[in-house]
């Protein structure tokens, strides 16, 4: 009766009877030759296979009788008949397919449930060690979303593959692309090869991506997605199917794969790193992909974006970048700056105060991060340029005097020297041993008071510092210490007062230089004390400088009027501190007197012994016996009882019987 209803055009009623008859879906699908089924499926012939080509035309062809009539018709009638036949064929095909869709949807829940149960059972058997199926790997094929391997003899899953493949085709043929997409997004058993071919022909790229995704064929999906993105970027592309794809689509697809396949994520993230650097690096961070792995991959396949990746990663999360990566980022910046310097030097256009964007990044990185090796970077710097970078590196090596000399004598920017001293002072002041943090200002003061060294001698010191890693140069604490005792300091001050050398030795080692060195420095005609900078330093940082030591370094001819901005607040602070300490001293003395008075009062404690006073230990009267009073002033005992109790406690503590 179902076949009869199908012949007469009652397709939905026919499918209802097929459903009530509980026949296999392959029986009903044999009525639809336009539906392509998996090749491994053997579709049984129904008892009475209908000739659909004459009574119920499929999507691929019309009725043969109608074709014969059209051959003998006049041209005008032929066109009209052809149009009517096409409309009738489409209507009949649509109705038959809609009936099939309803039939398959009603059968689907039970079939998918059985297929899922089979997959779960196999997973459980594998978990308990049942490997009876491992001897013949040719019986397995790849599964859909998270279903493991599917044995070829799996009846329920084979039936599920037939159903989902046919259902997807029917939905596409009836124009229900959104329903087909929902089918692929959920648990499905669609045959990949058949559905892939159909979706490609009809340009259903979104559904094709979901098909690849549900079958864990991520490489094919990403290749297709990349092609769609490139096609959408092209000006020649006006296809509405590709216009909605952008680089962010690739990033969204890669997010779930970070934990399972990081190498695939790195491979395809290179395609969008240049166009979407921030989003791509956020992908790396959110996916917890090791930074060393990402950096090595970028270094090999995208060197131009390596610095950008490290820079953004450091900006997002400073703690997530290791010392090695910090060092590599600084090396990249330095290489770019050196290339820029070489180009300008060749054109004789180099200016020490010129700052390119990369040089600004280099200076910022050198100051803010500490994971790099300053000695290695120092060796790469040219001897006659990039003094600011050299000064920062010397500061990282605690060579404060050389760093300040660069700021003062090479860069001629006292503001940078003062800012450097402030950074050192604040960093040392927070440390437990920050007592000599103000000595860094005395070092700068000595440099201002010293004449400029010749470029030859200064570069010689820098070269010696870099060439030998074991060379020890006095640090700020020892360099700037000004001794009051001894004749050497007296001689230094005398030399400043007599303006013989017009300078103060910056360190104890320089004070012992030979007469030849003194003659060499005296030959510099333009060697003058930078008195203006000295006075500015004293007036701006008077609260951080040891006033007594600073005054001893100044030349004798320095006018007292010029020192008022330094001495006035210094003396005011000193007087205020003296006043405060005097008040504190008086308060301490008063407190001491109060404690003594309380002690005397405690010693005047009176204990009254009457005829009724009892010993708290033996419960006998005290009488005229020697007694002891406990600190609370109320408990009275015989002195003998007190002594015996103390002896018993001592014995009890030393007894081995009480030790456990």
Give an account of the 3D structure.
61% of the residues lie in helices and 2% in strands. With 660 residues, the protein is mainly alpha-helical. Among the domains are: 1-38 and 95-119 and 154-215, no CATH class; 406-466 and 529-558, no CATH class; 563-603; 613-646, no CATH class. A two-stranded antiparallel ribbon has the order 1-2. Strands 3-4 form a two-stranded antiparallel sheet. A hairpin with a 6-residue loop joins strand 1 (140-142) and strand 2. Helix 14 crosses helix 16 and helix 21 runs antiparallel to helix 22. The longest helix has 53 residues, at 75-127. It starts with a helix and ends in a 6-residue tail after the last helix. Residues 45-81, 130-153 and 469-526 have low confidence and may be disordered.
DSSP strand content = under 5%
Main sheet makeup: 2 strands, antiparallel
Q: Average pLDDT across residues?
A: 75
The count of DSSP E runs of length 2 or more, i.e. the number of strands, is 4
| Computed Rg | 47 Å
Shape: flat
Distinct helical segment count: 31
Q: Which percent bin holds the helix content?
A: 55-70%
Separation, N- and C-terminal Cα atoms: 97 Å
Strand order of the largest sheet: 1-2
> Segments where pLDDT lies below 50 for 5+ residues?
45-81, 130-153, 469-526
The oligomeric status of these chains comes to single chain
Structural class given helices, strands, pairing? Answer: mainly alpha
Biased composition (Low complexity): 58-67
InterPro entries: Clathrin_H-chain/VPS_repeat (IPR000547), Vam6/VPS39/TRAP1 (IPR032914), VPS39/TGF_beta_rcpt-assoc_1 (IPR019452), VPS39/TGFA1_Znf (IPR019453)
Region (Disordered): 53-77, 494-524
Protein name: CNH domain-containing protein
